[in-house]
Task: structure prediction
Amino acid sequence: MDHSAQRHGYKAYLTPVRDGRYSSKMIIRARIVVTIDGAPIENGSVAVSGNRIVDVGRFDDIKTRNAGDTVDLGEQLLLPGLINAHCHLDYTCLRGKIPPQKSFTDWIQAINAAKAKLSPKDYVASINEGFEEAKRFGTTAIANLTAFPELISQVQSPIRTWWFAELIDIRALESANELVDAAIESLGRTAPWGLAPHALFTASKDLFRRCGEIAQREHILLTTHLAESREEMEMFRDGAGPLYEFIKSIGRPTNDCGNETPLGLFVGAPPSTSLRTGLGRALPRWIVAHLNELTESDFDLLERSNSKFHVVHCPRSHKYFGHSPFTFERLRSLGFNICLGTDSLASNESLSLFDEMRAFQKNFPQVSPEEILRMATVNPARALRYENPLGQIRPGFGADLVAVPCSTSTDEFEQIIACDAAVSWSMVNGNINWMLEE
Ligand SMILES: [Zn+2]
Result:
């Protein structure tokens, strides 16, 4: 395969008809189809009608049951499109620009300095570049946090995008309500959307509470960064450390520091915490990134909590910062839905979820490749409340598919995780939007 001849264009074979649906039918054949819904299918194929999968099985059976032209992908593995559960495409242009720092607080200051040099035009270019890269590496859906919701209308996403407005009111002159209203004004023109109060140390309780209220009312999703670094733990639990000092120096009140862990503050223990009512009601709507730093009392809290949020682990960003080991097994045994994300390229090298799955596998070799693939397909689909139409190859599901070359390895899931180049082919919502030319 000639990788120099990559085609970057958006290739739409399916023309939407006037009512917004699609009229074309096709049968996609591959050496192996990994549905995730059941065992991999040798000489498998998927029948697609418009933007939906209508049938899946062995090629001979599918061919007799369905109409449409055959697209034969040959010696390829066909799988559901990957879903990135946590990303900031704003910072794609910062790849390699911020070397690992001595502390998390130093990194915050370094990224702030880098951001000060970027214009809205730079951010639009950065987001577009990020989308192209994510698409090339088989990502067909993404939860993307943007600090600039007003720029969304200038971007045409080639994949399914959940836009989250990242909100910080640490230095804001407006009230939390005004900040959220302005973000919704920009987000309202896109769908689906959500809100992302950045973190407990940059977003006020009022802001968290307001986002929780909106989520209940509008049925949207929420995401935040929680318990990411040792310094965040030190700040809230001990009222000390570099993050505490930095945050204090820029004028944030510190009356919530020196008492509870970040998770304690977020989930709302002890019951007197005013945050409890704001967040507690909306817990299942939260997609929580990181959760790297948890104490035994935090685990008690998680065990006692009836409603569960979703957790995103970003293995390479985790390694870049040198956080405490991620407690995957403990969180999984408590029933948390754990997804993978790339985070931004200000703390990672690529937007490939294959790279992310391999990094995870290196740290957790005992976890099966099938389970790892689920963390980039079924699990994030569930976190995004799209577990019915996305994340698997099943009749009735959205036609989001990607193909990677078959290798000599016998385990299909292992072969998928080993993919270290652009995918051979991909389809999003029934449109073929990426292929490597022969
Ligand atoms: Zn992040």
Residues 86, 88, 225, 289, 343 surround zinc ion (CB under 6 Å). Residues 1-22, 270-278 have pLDDT under 50 and may be disordered. DSSP finds 16 helices and 17 strands in the chain. The two ends are 5 Å apart (CA to CA).
